[in-house]
């Protein structure tokens, strides 16, 4: 391929791209897996680098990508320089034409590896820390933002943050949720497998068990709902560092909450749910919110980060970290099937306006082509 052959750069780019991610059990890993599979299917040679656990969970190689394990922890760690050296060696060996890191931890490792080809970094999250850790995170943002040739941001507030730290070329990128996989199980069968009788209201949330998700507040407020008849069941699917604390809290408060752990059947869980719940203190383009609206399930979510611009009038929005607001909104919606149905209809209309994964992949191929042409 030559820089003079413009046909190679008009959405048909099929070069070699390296995708880098740090430790992930949720949204970032799912997004990278979706992009890797569709890029590979479109003719791009995809090289994925990340912790070995991500290959086990997201199965990049089954999607047509090659995978090289590089241990990049979710937080700063003394072993980080080993990851930098490993990435540098892989870049020399495999000669990618574009390096695309997902998240600031992967972006930092890729930036320090000093690729001689264009570097793209997608910002998926904002820091929620103060003090020394907050200042360290801002320093990482500055290093990564200034090292990247293009910074892609999943929400408008991330765009503002990237520009504030000196990122050179900042663009919005709609991180699309992967298509939901449904089995042939009926709603009743899914509920029966979970031990939930028909007629019992079900609230569902899916996400990493981390303080960012606001699950401690959700458990606390759910304990209040034991006065409802029938008592609702709240399902939380996901893994993460807050699991033991949340399990203890559920037990202590006798909250009607079930921690399901990691699940591969989110589509089925949504079919069993009456209301989807997002209680986070910050999100960008939250994948579960997209999945809920796409599945036609009414959504109650906190008005934080990129969620309002994502859902528009397609969800019931409440203030974050406000237990009483969550309590009132949940009781109102669970007690009013007509309100839930109308909310679900608005959500479906909103979801129909979002770009899907294939559109996102075409956007990436055009970006990679643009960058490859610059260096060609």
From TrEMBL:
Keyword field contains Hydrolase: no
Alphabetized CDD domains for the sequence: GT4_PimA-like
GO MF term list: glycosyltransferase activity
Domain Glycosyl transferase family: 189-348
A GO BP annotation: carbohydrate derivative biosynthetic process
Keywords linked to the UniProt accession: Glycosyltransferase, Transferase
SUPFAM superfamilies: UDP-Glycosyltransferase/glycogen phosphorylase
Glycosyltransferase subfamily 4-like N-terminal domain: residues covered: 26-172
Domain of life: Bacteria
Protein name listed in UniProt: Glycosyl transferase
Organism: Rhizocola hellebori
Taxonomic lineage: Bacteria, Bacillati, Actinomycetota, Actinomycetes, Micromonosporales
